[in-house]
Amino acid sequence: MPKTVSSLEFALSNRPPHQTLSDWLYAELRGSILEGRLRPGTRLPSSRDFARQHSLSRGTVVVVFERLLAEGYLSSRVGSGTWVSQRGAAGAHARAEPQAPPAYVRRVISAYARPKAYEGWVATEGRRPFQMRDPALDEFPAKLWGQLIARRARTFKSWLRTEDDGRGYRPLREATAHYLGSSRGVRCTADQIFIVSGVQQALDLLARLLLKPDDPVWVEDPAYVGATMAFSNAGAKVVPVPVDEEGLSVSAGARVCDRPKGMYLTPAHQFPLGMTMSLERRMEVLKFAARAGAFVIEDDYDSEYRFEGRPVPTLQSLDRSSSVIVVGSFSKLLFPSLRLGYVMLPPPLVDYFLAFRLQTDFRSVGLDQAVLCDFIEGGHLGRHLRRMRELYAGRLAALLEGGRRHLKGLLEISNIRAGLYTAGFLRNGMTSREAETAAAAHGVEAVALDRYTLKRPDPKGVLLGFAAFDEATIREGLVRLAAAFGRRSGRAELKREAVS
User: Fold this and answer.
1) How far apart are CA 86 and CA 91, in angstroms?
2) pLDDT above 70 coverage of the chain, percent
């Protein structure tokens, strides 16, 4: 059904004293169609209702409607009403001349530079192996989630007025604190938890609160691009620190900058290489941070998905100097459009972060928070994670086995058994970007590792997401990669895989 325009949805500007009512109304309606405020197919009220809504005579409205009908801007049919014509609006837009940006826009964009990691990289349309964006959405208990939403909607008034002091829905903060304590070893209370829209908002707020222009902050190299963007936007000096098989090298960082204002780490599952920071290195990081008076932001982005042994406790669980801030997201655990994450702050920072957050965001989205709270408290999150760990472990095993079969001598896939993606290192002489381009040409998305490096040379590898794809799709994708990376038999293998 076409949308009916109400008096609230369509406002008329004041009529100039020299203009007749009919000319003024005609110009208002025609201008709204030309500018797209009244879109093709939009249904208008009847002439009687329109006249009453805008305190006009019906005769004036009828005259204007008939003029617009005659010129093709409106269409009408007896019994169906009057609506904006598809043909008239399309013709009007086709004749519109592009306008130059205003001066203030030109001044802004003249100094704007796109981040390195996004230059030339356009995500493929649709879902193609081995995209990293999604978990296994088909396996999410969508029906249960819908039931929780419906129940909250039926009891709307009972939770609508629930206190939100700027930190988020308190029952969800309590559930999150309990969840982090039991599953990740985090020592905190609900008062230390802030609900945010995701890790990126958390990093943006923390960077602007904790860093001043030119403050040095250590960042792993290679690193999550969103973190370097947040720190750079705050004017901080990003200091790349190399990682080895044990995680960030504290000794290398100290040689480059011995008094950082802070550090950004992914100790449970380093992004993007995947290693887990050793206990010895964790203690070294905490001692250095305490000695230097530096904060540590621990990004715990997908640590629940570990397929051998128990999830590694957080760095914060070892901290005794209130140096560590933990950030995380529920989007990776559940589904991407659930824009909910958390920040766990040391007690001395809570009031400052709250005051800063209230300058930018008075209240967060309540319904999603209430539903997520029910999902956690009902035990559904724990059951979903256990099921997904088993599923993802099988998909990673298929990727590793298939990689040995199809990519031997071309790509060596990391044996780290964790996360929603894994790194593969090229053995065919290609650079990371060459491999990314070749994979895309064969219908596969493999993101170049050097998109995440800062000073480190090209690691000559790609990232492969496996969580969203069943084992048959993974095998097919590996055959395509073999063809992309140099194995001439790839096409024949692809046909055999399709038959089997």
Assistant:
1) 9
2) 85
Q: What average pLDDT does this structure show over 358-379?
A: 85
Task: Please give the single-letter amino acid code of residue 217.
Answer: V
Residue 2: band (very low, low, confident or very high) from pLDDT cuts 50, 70, 90:
very low
Q: What distance in Å separates the CA atoms of residue 275 and residue 266, rounded to the nearest whole number?
A: 9
Structure tokens at 73: 């801007």
Tokens 């084992």 found at: 471
Pull the structure tokens for residue 468. Answer: 């969203």
Listed in sequence order, the DSSP H helices in 35-128 are 47-53, 58-70, 86-95, 103-110
My answer on whether omega of the bond before 222 falls inside 30° of 0, hence cis, is: yes
**CA 416 – CA 423 distance, rounded (Å):** 9
pTM to 2 decimal places: 0.77
Are 200 and 331 a contacting pair, CB within 8 Å?
no
C-alpha dist (Å) from residue 236 to 253, 260, 267, 435: 16, 11, 22, 33
CB of 241 within 8 A of CB of 256?
Answer: yes
* In contact, 473 and 498? CB cutoff 8 Å: no
Q: Which two tokens stand for residue 55?
A: 């305190």
Strand runs (DSSP E) across 226-368, as ranges? 237-244, 247-248, 262-265, 295-299, 324-329, 341-344
Q: Tell me the three state secondary structure of residue 183.
A: helix
Q: Please answer whether residues 216 and 210 qualify as being in contact, where contact means their C-beta atoms are separated by less than 8 angstroms.
A: no
371-430 pLDDT per residue, tens: 999 999 999 999 999 999 999 999 999 999 999 999 999 999 998 888 899 999 999 999
Q: Which residues have a Cβ under 8 Å from the Cβ of 379 and sit 6 or more positions away?
A: none
* Helical residues (DSSP H) of 366-448, grouped into ranges: 366-377, 380-406, 432-441
User: 244, 281 in Cβ contact below 8 A?
Assistant: no
Beta bridge partners of 326: 298, 344
The whole-chain average pLDDT of the chain stands at 85
End-to-end CA distance of the chain: 47
